[in-house]
Amino acid sequence: MQTPPRLDLSGITKRFPGVLANDQVSFAVQPGEIHALLGENGAGKSTLVKMIYGIMQPDAGVIRWNGAPITIANPKAARKLGIGMVFQHFSLFEAMTVLENIALGMDAKIPARDLEAKIVAVMQQYGLKLEPHRIVSTLSVGERQRIEIVRALLLNPNLLIMDEPTSVLTPQEVEQLFVVLRQLAAEGCSILYISHKLHEIKALCDTATILRGGKLVDTCDPAVETSRSMAEKMIGGSLKDIQRGEGRALGKPKLIVQGLSVPKDGPFGVALKDIGFSVKAGEIFGIAGVAGNGQNALLLALSGEVAAQNAEAIYVDTTCVGALSAKQRRLAGMASVPEERNGHAAVPDFSLSDNAILTARDRMGMVSGGMVNARTAKTYAGEVITAFSVKATGPAAMADSLSGGNLQKFIMGREIMQKPQVLVVSQPTWGVDAGAAAAIHQALVDLAATGSAIVVISQDLDELLSLCDTLAVINEGRLSNPMPVAGANIEEIGLLMGGIHGETQTPELSHAS
Amino acid sequence: MRLKLEKRPAPSTFMLIATPIASVLLTMLIGMIVFDAIGINGQRAVVDIFLTPVLASYKWQDVAVKAAPLIIIALGLSIGNRAQIWNIGAEGQYVLGALFAAAVGLYAGPDAGAATLILMILAGIIGGAAWAAIPALLKTRWDVNEILTSLMLTYVSFQVLGFLVGGPWKDPNGRNFPATAPLPEGLTLPILFPGSTVHLGVAIALILPFLFWILMSRSVFGFQIRVVGSAPHAARHGGFDAKQTIWMALLIGGGMAGLAGALEFTGSLKAIGLGFPSGYGFTAIIVAFLGRLHPIGCLIAGIVLAITYVGGQVAQTTVHIPNSTAGIFQAMMLFFILASDILIRYRVRVIKAKPSGAQA
Fold first, then answer.
1. What CATH number should be reported for the domain whose range is B2-351?
2. pLDDT in tens, A212-230
3. Chain A, 400-439: which have a CB under 8 Å from a chain B CB?
4. Which of A279, A388, B84, B283 has the fewest CB atoms within 10 Å distance of its CB?
5. What are the extents of the domains in chain A?
6. Per the database record, which ranges form the ABC transporter domain (chain A) (predicted)?
């Protein structure tokens, strides 16, 4: 080859106590190439990228930059080389403007006026719409991501690393992001694109490198592969489809929510406004929406962690549960799984057995006379571990010793095996690998088949479309009218998700009000 | 070469137990060096403070009597600390406990018997809990920091004490000293071993840790305290009320401190004077942490701290250092124990050479 690859990794190995995070990983990214890095959670993608961006050092192996072996001591050195990175979790100050946030992230001191001119120039060049003087807290997630992208582009990167960039975007925002990335690639910038959304990789990337268990398993051309074949390479086995029973009929409404309003907690919270929907026995009801539009508040209001303003707002069958506490709602047959696993759905430094006590103690008879029956808890935790194939050393394993996907399986199993009448779950497969996600989906479908009503709140539209019978979209704390998933219009859902934040209106106008 | 902290896959049980022991040993070592440096026989001071009370059998009863209030208060505090509720006003709750007990004793008159004694002790628990209820109310109602309120109330309690023993409760036959009249024989705690000062309170301090152990490890309440302290959001998700937890943690902490005050009054001092607040409520904070917030740990740590109290008095006469030297040793212990906490969840790795990308 005439020109050396932009980035060439050979034999990269990184070891953590107890884990080999990267084992002899070698691949190359060419100039102007959009290169996908695929893999399940814990496959070693993040570790690899952190070494490229100088956050960590490899234990062994060589990184070549434009053909020359180099050591990238820290992120500053990486940026100097022209490596930019957009993280999955943004590092932005909510109370500061776009311009101030970008200025804070710059290595070089540039006067504000010059910086603003540069920012405007970069935004015009790539068609990124962003108002430099807006306060970050008023921006949508998509707009926040644009700040991070602009921040990276100001460095004139030769390699841009994007970590799960689309997980928080509406379909329309994803399209816009792809336009920017394609333009960058056409100008010769290499892009390392980390994702597990396979159809996006097929649409965007030239090459895909697949990691599994820290090892490189394949480098392939996504245009030739199918989503399924790549998924199977990722999990190293065959992917199961959701099995649905034939001819299932929905029963009577089981969960009825009407006029549910909750004031916002804190300046950056979202208030729920007059939410109403009903879920029939056997139905899976999906709630789509971009992160930060009230999903958290809705889950807390449904789980009973936050009381509704109007006690009549929530019914399970004919029982009014709006005024009941979380514990009482569980006893009434209403279970929930919040989005955040660590510290909300589970206690990280408790054993699985103790985590079973957390939400299953009353329904599964673990308490008598104010004392906990540890043996019952242990047995129940063991049953969940077995039934949901949780990879753990046993009920005594600490929750934080499990991988995210395994902990999520345990948490879902803990609720599902209590056979709740109503189950509300938020982001059931967030950060969970494809194999575990399939198992969780199947368990939800099976629970619905027994006549439970299920609400799935998710930002992953694909997940909702494949799982749910009915779908509604939450935006700024309001819920759209429900629509049947069969025959749903993706375009329309996308517009609902965008709400007034969307690019269908000009941002200047929409935020002037 | 540089040092690096690395997260352990699981918390180290070895470190959990080893660090308190190491803290005590390190305190002895550093104390020795510092005392030598300022021209005092350091080795002698450390031996007298830490070893004489253990080796000399005639000091054991002093250790037992001093350990009892420390253990009882620390048990209550460790529950609060587990739930991340920081009651540092145990000293004031201890004083109020004694005052409540005294009130019952005074109004019962000189001929009262065992039933009144039991009532006095119960009043002590109520008094301590009532004093702790003030920070609990302020915290649950207006989110006022309990660290400040509980500490400030300690100084209020000293004023209450001063007013009562210098005014309405002053012993008429006490030559105008600001102190209550000594308790009549029938209202003092029974002595366990005739001829010694070891009173019933010591037995209570030996039994309570085991009851608390069962409470914390087996009961739903213990579970609630642990969840609230470890993951407040998960506690809410699990249906545990945060405000109720705050109330319970402070009431139990205050109640135990009040109990200790009542026992100290009826068992040891038999009268309340201005010198009644002796710092047990503050030292018990050290006991709770040295004992790793575990009831049995509190039992052991209470004995260790009592040894330093008794040893401090020994060293006062032998090497002529002020009694407050013991306080310095106790503070050093707390310092080391808090500093070494990180070793439970992290390990220190020594990195010799800078790893380079060009090794392979």
1. 1.10.3470
2. 888 888 888 888 888 788 8
3. 401
4. B84
5. 7-235, 253-512
6. 7-238, 257-501
